[in-house]
Amino acid sequence: MNRPLPAAAPADERAIDQTLAQWVFKRTDSALLASAVRAASSAEGHGHSCAWLTDPQTDAGFDADALDVLRQHAWVGDGSRFTPFVLDAQNRFYLRRNWQHETKLAAAILQRCQQRTLPIPADTLTDDLDALFAGMPAGNTDWQRAAVAAVPGARFFVLTGGPGTGKTTTVVRMLLMLLRHARACGLPALPSIALAAPTGKAAQRLVQAIAKGKAELQTTLPKEDFRDLLPLIPHADARTLHRLLGYRPMENTFSHSARNPLAEDIVVVDEASMVDLAMMCQLLEALRPDAVLILLGDPGQLASVDAGSVLADIVASAPSNQLPPGMAALLAPMLQNAPGTTTNDAALAGQVLTLTHSWRAGSGLQRGIEALRDTPDPAWLDTLLSARADGDLHLRHCPNPHALRACVDSWIERHVDLLQALLTSSSIDAGAALQNLHQLQILSALRDGPFGAQGLNELISRQLAARFGIDSNHAWYHGRPVIITRNDYARGLFNGDVGIALQGADGLRVWFELSDRDGNAGLRSFSPRALPAHESAWAITIHRSQGSEYRDVAVVLPPDEDNRILTRELVYTAISRARNHAEMWVTDTSLRAALSRPIQRQGGLRERLVPGKA
Ligand SMILES: Nc1ncnc2c1ncn2[C@@H]1O[C@H](COP(=O)(O)OP(=O)(O)OP(=O)(O)O)[C@@H](O)[C@H]1O
After folding, report:
1. Is 208 in the pocket of ligand 1 (CB under 6 A)?
2. pTM for the full model?
3. Among 133, 167, 169, which residue has the most ligand 1 atoms within 8 Å of its CB, making it the best to mutate?
4. ipTM above 0.95, yes or no
């Protein structure tokens, strides 16, 4: 049984998928193997870590005979010996590097989970929780308290939750707990802490939130010995994961690995949903066995750009907020509502906790954000579509470019004061201008086309030119926001950094808020000619907005409901970037289509994290 390579490539296939398949075919003369390789390569391009060859949905068309032939091929193995491709018992077909990342990562996580102890006696835990949560009522803080009480003795801990559920508030307390009981937790007396995030923007937000949390605790903590530990938590220096791991762009390698592990004893990574399989594997490899890794994030958000859905897989592999019996018995007296229990063989139980209470009091967006996090209740969606609003979440019907222009015009009118200050005030300073810029953001599902970020930026520039008298024939004008699209290590400008062009005594300069090598944030300006690749940033893609937050967002979805980019996670990620107000420029059908389509990434990590299931 040998299947010929299809002559015509599917529209969304990459050239590399075809080239790789042809290369394999030339060397092996096996059309079957070439087809499987093409499927795995194409799957990787879509974020999957493998191709599931018997997936009825993708109709890859490999029957039992074909799989047998494939299994016998010298280039295919089960992973136990070196082969370029791996076909596992569940018929998942991998390019070897993805199989390696997945199995290594699962083994490293399970190994860390096995090391967990419960080193702090109950009465000490109770006293400490009372101090760390002084003035905060029990009940809504139960899972925050559980996380703080459960982290001592863990080598791997994941804290998840939607926006504003208190992840940062909790992690500062978790760190204080680890610092106070460092010795009992198997750490040095004064453990060192690293803060990191996948992007510079997310790293910046993390340090700001940690600094705020520390400042609050400085005044509310009743215990002096906890207060004395606050300076040990860094709040000025959060690095991108690339920087933390010592990325060497020329060689595409990292200086930190198992051979040269990170010096830090505790590593906190925020926005973990954006971390792909290869990067997470590198991070785990670079940690000393006795170091503690804490991941923070929201698995409801878009998965990483590159292969894997690591955070979502980790969360799905752990019983939801259920604790192993020993831990449940220890913590129950400290919580208002007794936690559920699970069996001792659930490897990640008690090391993956989810915060569920939103502390963004009075936010008129909360109900919408919560509704969109999972498959929305059909009744809620029907009401939203007929009422055109739910609290501060609004819908605008946007079926064509004409309607899009009307949406842009009314967006400009609603924000006219802020836009006027940005575009026409010559006295605005760079700090205030950047602050203004963070208040509003248009987010688009697409990059290209009239509904994409690029088309929207052109449209907005034209409409702003007409409204405020800007010379739209020039790419650069006072008040133009730009986003960097390629890392420039020499200048310290990174993909996703947003700046603003301002006319000053030295001519037009582009201002950014950047962290220096010591992590201190400050304003720096560049000549437009000195910038690495960049684009206008009135509108940016939803993918680029991950890890950022704005007061008001407008979310643009293309009217073509068949566009596969439309997923529930995309809509949720976009709406959850807003603090106060969000509007969607959509058609009912494209919104319904997006919400009915959760991202489903193929891979085996979820099963590999459940011993005996992979
Ligand atoms: N137990 C609590 N009692 C009162 N306020 C709280 C509590 N926990 C968190 N908050 C407040 O809720 C807000 C959001 O908290 P925090 O920033 O920790 O959430 P987050 O999950 O990290 O948010 P984001 O997803 O935006 O990063 C903050 O203003 C914080 O002070």
Report:
1. no
2. 0.89
3. 169
4. yes
